[in-house]
Amino acid sequence: MLRQVIGSIRESLIRWGDAAGVAPRLAASAVRRGILPLGFSTLATLRREGLSDLHWKVLGDSLVRFFRESGPVLTKLGQLLAVRNDLLPQAVCARLEALYTGQPAMPKRQLRRVLKQAYPSGSPFAEFHARPIAVGSIGQVHRARLPDGSPVIVKVIRPGMARAIRRDLNAARVFTKLFFMLFRRDRKSTRLMVSRALEDLAQALELESNLEHEAETVEDFRKRLARNPNVYVPICYRDWSRRDILVLEELTGKPLSLVREQSKEHPDVSKRTAHLALKEILSQIFEEGVFHADPHGGNLLLLEDGRLGLIDLGLTGELGLHERRHIARAAKAFLSRDADAAIRALLEFGSISPDFDLESFKTDVKEVLRENKDDILAHATGRTAKRKNGTFRLGELVNELIRVAGRHGIYLPPSTTLLIKTVVTIEGVARSLDPELNLVVTAVPIILKSLTPRFLRWSYWTGSG
User: Fold this and answer.
1) How far apart are CA 339 and CA 334, in angstroms?
2) How many angstroms separate the Cα of 136 from the Cα of each of 62, 165, 208, 370?
3) Which of 29, 86, 137, 245 fits a 20 to 30 Å CA distance from 128?
4) From edge to edge, which strands make up the β-sheet containing 231-232?
5) Are 56 and 131 part of one and the same domain?
6) Sequence-ordered list of residues with C-beta below 8 angstroms from that of 346, at least 6 positions apart, any chain
7) How sure is the predictor about 392, in pLDDT bands with cuts at 50, 70 and 90?
8) Does residue 240 carry a pLDDT above 70?
9) CA angle 311-314-319, nearest 5°?
């Protein structure tokens, strides 16, 4: 077996070139952090048997250290995994969110070199602040000013990221292949899910590192939302933007996280903002079919004129008309507590593994719905459900159903997991501004509108489907 493993890995390394220097480093870090001795099926078994949150948190902390040791590309991969709670337990995903902070800024000399290469004829900025206002694993954000005095935000990708992404992703593929050859007890379905997830994450990573793609997204959002009096998308300065540099209008307003902090002094503003944010994000999902997929309190602004400002459109989702109709049917089954219809909807969402156990899956889904039937009924009738340990959130319950699907070998496409993560995030933001807010009361009219024959015809002819 060892000879077979070595031969297979050698062939992969020859085929993938410079990944050869990275894969051993990944393996060494994984062993040091106690990750490699665990097979994916072992993780799945532990999830089914109910390992305590404390143990999952310890594993999550080990994964955080592993990703940080492995460089910026794998750190970004870890960030993308933080929203895939169909693949990992919620406690692990929560720990992986630490990867969003604590990234080092690129040296000033390196930054100057990037700007000089992008603008060989001279800088287009009358003023440029070298100290970044935000730093991520792939790039960082600066304030600047154009010659006409317009304040702008400049996002800069770290140099060499395109090559590093290809190298590290190839190394991750080699590492995954080695992992499965060493742990043959992992089911075929588990291997298939992990391989698909890696390729989906790779695609997302490559898109997010291409700022020309984000520039196109910003312009698309501006066009789609131009007639919406409640939302504003910043101008993209395409003449000064590049593949690794994005120049956007700087919006002035309060982040919703700051509105939340001031909610006691301005409760009416807080409540109005909560309903505005929730309504507009849900409208993007069900009416436009494209949506801001990272609507946390720092990426949504309350502008001075009362509109909702959208910033950082690096992560967006897209749903076709068929997908939106399917989601609406699933929501109807869920709110009516029709377990069989909810199960059918979950099965239609994703691809099913060869060793899928339908009866076991049905039992687990029905158990989740049974345990939460009173809370679901309260939401469906327009009341705010209360629990002993806090206010019930519908998004968290949907998340639990998705985790059940993942445990049973149902692989959900990225568009679905991104949608659910978006709904969970915006519900959390809105409820932090208005604890009495009810997601269903806001969502149902939007969903019903999106399913009317007139809207479906309009959506087809305008291309939003």
Assistant:
1) 7
2) 20, 15, 12, 42
3) 137
4) 231-232, 308-310, 300-303, 253-255
5) no
6) 330, 365, 401, 405, 410
7) low
8) yes
9) 100
Domain span including residue 331: 252-465
Query: 253-255 and 300-303: which strand pairing?
Result: antiparallel
Contact between 328 and 447 (Cβ < 8 Å): yes
Which residue is listed with tokens 């159903």?
401
- Rounded Cα distance between 137 and 163, Å, is 15
Asked, for residue 204, whether it belongs to a domain, the answer is no
Which residues have a Cβ under 8 Å from the Cβ of 312 and sit 6 or more positions away? 294, 299
- Mean pLDDT over residues 369-383, rounded? 68
pLDDT at 399 over 80: no
The answer to whether the beta carbons of residues 40 and 197 sit under 8 Å apart is no
Give the percent of the chain with pLDDT over 90.
32
Joined tokens for residue 155: 């996002």
pLDDT higher than 80, residue 250: yes
CB 375 within 8 A of CB 385: yes
Q: Is residue 59 part of a domain?
A: yes
User: Which residues, 6 or more positions from 448, have their beta carbon under 8 angstroms from its beta carbon?
Assistant: none
**pLDDT tens profile 43-53:** 444 444 455 66
Q: Cα separation of 22 and 167, whole Å?
A: 8
* Residue located via tokens 């019930």: 392
* Domain total in the chain: 3
Measured between alpha carbons, how far is 115 from 117 in angstroms, rounded to an integer? 5
The pLDDT assigned to 417 comes to 80
Same domain, 187 and 314: no
- For residue 167, count CB atoms less than 10 angstroms from its CB and return exposed for 0-12, middle for 13-18, buried for 19 or more: buried
